[in-house]
Amino acid sequence: MLEPDHRPSYRFPAPANDQWDYLLSTIWNQMMHLVITLDGYLDAPRVCRAMMLVMEAEPLLACRFVESPTPYWEWMPDLHRDSVFSLIQCGDTDAALREVLITRLDPSKGPQARLTLLRGAADSLVISVNHAASDACGVKHICGLLVMAYRALGHDTGFSLPRAFHRDRSFTPLLSTLCPQARTAALEAFGEQSAVWGIPCQAGVQGSPVYRCRVIRPSTFLEAKAYSRSHGVTMNDLLLAAFFAAICQEIPHRSEQHYPVLTSADLRRSVPGGEAPAVANLSVAFEVWFPADKAPFGEDLVREVHHIMDGKKRLLAGIGSAIRLEEAFSAGFHSMRAHLLELERCSLYEHYPKNPFFSNTGIIPPECVDFRDVRTMHAFILPPVEYSPGFGIAASTFQNTLTLASGFCEGPLPYPMVERILSSMEEFISTLPGK
Q1: In 10 A of CB 426, how many CB atoms?
Q2: Domains 4-153 and 173-364+383-430 share a fold
Q3: Looking at residues 4-13, what average pLDDT do you find?
Q4: DSSP code at position 107
Q5: What is the value of pTM for the model shown?
Q6: Fold classification of 4-153 (topology level)
Q7: Does the structural domain 173-364+383-430 have CATH classification 1.10.40.30?
Q8: What is the pLDDT of residues 89-112, one digit of tens each?
Q9: Rounded distance between C-alpha atoms, residue 185 and residue 165, angstroms
């Protein structure tokens, strides 16, 4: 439990980007996880203390979301260790991990983050963060703070992390600098969003949330990385192309048409002065339309994806997404709730499609997961569960090992289909000519 004199009594405003992810958490599982597998055992009391220091350093994580016409985050005065950390002794680490991954943190009750230590033949750590409070960048930042505190506590039991000073977590610092021409171009690049296709699934059934992952060996990743450099494309272009080619094998479509994929961009690098906070929702999603007739042809599709994505980035489609979200919430929090509930009803009972989603959460830096006492064998990020008819895959990379992960609802969406998509992506990456 935090000491009384260390309990700040304040509120944080919840900007539109937080409000949107909070509302999504009311209809599906919005948890993000960073999973770390180790080759030995950590000092459990020390890692617990380190997590408590993280909660003190990033006070938003120790808040609850309060619904109101102007929603806000409220500090929780009675935060106990048991709500932040748990140690699970397990004979079957995989089974225990599956349970941890589908456990939700209610953002209206808090806290927004939790650390689970799974103790089996060796330790595994799971850092779970509610997307209502932060995106993947924040999850990696939290892990970095945890590692820093754990290592320091090994020789200084009185160590504490510096408390993050409050920064504007909204899109305002970014959008306020836009000239009218840039704003118009961003909105045009973002476009008018429309759900036109989606993974085939059974309507009216929610199913059970599960995760499936595919680990791509370093040799394949390094070959793909060399291909991207030699062909003047990005790894994100290559992964997006692999995703589009894979879902084209599963979703009915017409080969002569273009189809949309949702993808994400982190706007932190666009915030003036480098003042963007780490724990925030500054990643946005926008649609990108790709030609189905190029899906069977790897190199042609990669070139086309690069060309289209280059235009989206140049014309600031991600910023256009932020503008649209701010405009949508101008009608108020409760109006957006009603809108989302109607979308949920249409999706569940009328089979309204939801465009597939791909997110590249990027590299997990080695120093971010270096506990020093024991070696980190693998680390990867798991995205929120997409409830049917939604479907998505997130990519993360650690020490040249690429992990593709999908959170979905088994039942309405068949497990073999997800495995086929993951396999198709791996095959696409592995068999590009000229690598």
Answers
A1: 19
A2: yes
A3: 63
A4: T
A5: 0.94
A6: Chloramphenicol Acetyltransferase (3.30.559)
A7: no
A8: 998 999 999 999 999 999 999 999
A9: 34
